[in-house]
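Researcher: I'd like a structural prediction for the single chain below. Treat it as a standalone chain; there are no partners to consider.
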Amino acid sequence: MSYVGPSELVTLTPDNQFAISGDGNELMKIWFLDNGESVKTINHLEKITCITITKDTQFTITGSEDMSLKIWETKSGKLTQILAGHDEMVTCVAVANHNRHVVSGSSDKLLIVWNLSTGETEKTLEGHQDIVTSVKMTSDGTLAVSGSRDGTLRVWSIQHGVMVTAFYLHVPVLELKMTFNAEHILVRVEEGGCAPLLCLHNSTAAEIESQSQVNIDLKDDSSSSTTSPITVPMNKPPPLEKKSSSIRMPKITRKSTSSVNEPSDKKKHSKNRHQSYSDGNSSPGKAKNKRSGVCKIL
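Model: Treating it as a single chain, here is the predicted structure.
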């Protein structure tokens, strides 16, 4: 079965009952998949640039060159809210599975965290130096990952409204795909002839507790294997929030291979505290090699 209609921007609802498509202008149509009938035409004042649908299919969210986002009831096409806050065109949008937050990116270099129920702005995420081209959220809504034409990939804490990790790719980022917990992120870049596959701290993104940075050279020596993982150490500044504790942690040197001498009665606590940053393949009796990020060039 085929349908005659807009086809430049097309997506399916998670329940596979509807298709939503647009022809690169200010209009999009919602279609029934079983018979191809049009449910409703949704619209903006200017070209629609991005779209996302909640996991339960209840809402469809669109972004536009008119600097706004609109929230629609998918089954009826009814407009429920208009989100206005960006100073330039909206370029990307993502929603969490719990339907509480929406994150949008824009040509104004900002990301905004919206409350899906009230339409209010909860956080403004600043840091990118160029157009934000792509944004994704973890399934639990705790973290957002954004890419930009400034050549960086940034991980944000939704709760605190701050950046926790940045990957410097040095080439414009066009699009990103990631697993539900952001453990692996696949990036589409403008040039370089490769697709970086990133791993956050060798653990799920939810376990990241402090700011860090990774510098990745996609134009590395061409003689090196394109399938070998590149391990890049991160500098680990103090945690985002200070928490009182009765345990005094020993000072850790910056050498990744050096072992830390701790009092015997505190080793267990220290080990548990840093377990998510350790390489699980380390053999007993040897210092664990703490990896902060892995980039595999596909």
